[in-house]
Each structure stands twice: as structure tokens, then as C-alpha cells.
Amino acid sequence: MPPTEIKLVVLDWAGTTIDYGCLAPTGAFVEAFASKGVDVTLAEARGPMGLHKKDHIRAMLRTEIVGGKWRAAVGRDWAESDVEELYRSVTPLQVAAAEKYSGLIAGVPAVADALRAKGLKVAASTGYFHEAAAVVRSAAKRQGFEPDFNICADDVPAGRPAPWMIFRCMEALSVYPPAAVVKVGDTVIDIEDGRNAGCWSVGVIDSSNEMGLSEAEFKSLTEAERNVRRKDITERYQKAGAHAVLHVITDLPALIGDLNARLARGERP
Questions:
Q1: In 3-state terms, what secondary structure has residue 12?
Q2: What is the crossing angle of helices 223-239 and 188-197, to 10°?
Q3: SS3 label, residue 63
Q4: Distance in angstroms (rounded) separating the CA atoms of residues 242 and 187
Q5: Residue 8 DSSP SS3
Q6: pLDDT per residue over 80-137, tens digit each?
């Protein structure tokens, strides 16, 4: 039977529900590479955000710029053993950063309450490994948000953009088909993740990794500056196949009504 309404929302963590600007992951990668004498920028560290952190390191090294910096600093091409070493360096740095940047994004508990009042279930997924995922979940719970099911990239055979985390959320919460599910995230990888799962895929802008600004930095922008950045991010999300784009997570409950209307018209993701 085709779905008649949305039953499950799968939310990303950093940049979507916690850690405005997705600041925790980037600094850890910069510091880990610096330990090998490789000077990478925050922008270069942000590029593959949303992947499992080991895949993130590989993706950085595969770029022409970071790969070139590695060769210049280390004197050879990178190898898989370097990925493992960098990952071992990133792990404690990432946990510490996740603890530091653990503030919930404004309105998240109210959004979860509104979704549940509509009869939806709320899950969360992340590219974090177990230790960092546990930190953000505990921090979120202390601040009033706890998903009905939580999963991280360590729990599946492959992280994003593979759809396995979304499928595990669906299985755990007994929701199907994918057209009854919405994935919400703040990276292009999140959008691809949702599309690969066959569900509705939604991007958040203002607090996102794609925006890459702390809340204070974002608020310091003029409205014209914000809109220029929003337009660019919207285009990136749409190019990746986003079904909808939100400025802020608090717009999500209203979007569910729009998606239900689209389902009623026979539309499918």
C-alpha cells in the first residue's frame, strides 16, 4: 500500500541538531593533519563532511590540493597506513571537540515535540564513530532532546552516502516504505544519503556545515550577505537532489504538512 503520510524523520547531528556551524569535526581534522606537518584549511577539512571519519580522511587525501600538501610535507604519496594513523589521532581530538561544541541548535526539542505530536517518530544518524556519537547524544539528552533511535557510521557496513543508517532507523522503528521517511541534514552527503535511501531528502542551511559559521558569526552577517550564502547552499543541495531546503530546523514541522500534501497528490521522492 502506498504511504499516505510521513511517519519518520531521520535527523543528522552536528550542524543540524547540535553544534551550530558543525565546528567540532573540522578542527579535529586540521589538528590531526598538522601533527604530520600538513597544513590544511578549515574549508578543506569541511569538504567531505558527513562521511564516516575514516572515509573523510581518505576523501581529503584524494583531493589534488590536500594530496599535494601531503606529498610536499611527507615526501611521498599517502598510504592506507597513514589513514589509520590519522584516524587514531582524530579520534580523541574529535571526542574532545564534540564535548566542547555540544550546544543544541535553538528549537530542536520543540521540533521533536511537534513531530511526535503529529504521530511521527524521530531518529538520529551521524558520521561520528561510537565514542563521539555517545558524547553528542548524552549532551543532547541533558538539553531536552533524545531521539527514538540513534545510529552512527560504526554500526553499518558503510557510512554515507550509502543508505544503510537510514534503513536501520526504519527497521528499528518499524516504518516503511522509504516514501514515508524524511532525512534532514546539513551537508551534500546528507542529501545524497537520503536520495540513495529513496526517501525525502531535506537540507538545513543556516546552522550547516555548508554555511560553516558559528552562530555569532552568522548573526554578524547582514541579511544581504546571508541571502547570498543561502542561495549558493540551496543550489548545492538542489544539485544533489534535495526535495526541500530549510533555512532553520524549526521550519521542519510545517514542511511535513507540505510533504504529506505531495504524498496525497501521488508524488513520491
A1: strand
A2: 40
A3: coil
A4: 11
A5: strand
A6: 999 999 999 999 998 999 999 999 999 999 999 999 999 999 999 998 989 999 999 9
First-last CA distance in the chain:
16
Going by C-alpha positions, the residue among 150, 269, 151 that lies closest to residue 200 is: 269
Here the cell at position 161 is 552516502
Out of 7, 12, 54, 193, the active site residue is: 12
Phi, psi (rounded to 5 degrees) for 126 = -155, 155
Active site residue 53: yes
pTM: 0.89
Catalytic residue among 19, 36, 39, 53: 53
The residues near 152 (Cβ < 8 Å, ≥ 6 apart) are 125, 126, 127, 128, 129, 130, 132, 133, 165
Q: Say which residue the cell 514541522 belongs to.
A: 253
- Residue 36, helix vs strand vs coil: coil
Give the H or E element holding residue 151.
strand 149-152
* Contact indicator for 55, 187 with CB cutoff of 8 Å: no
Q: 183-211: per-residue pLDDT in tens?
A: 999 999 999 999 999 999 999 999 999 99
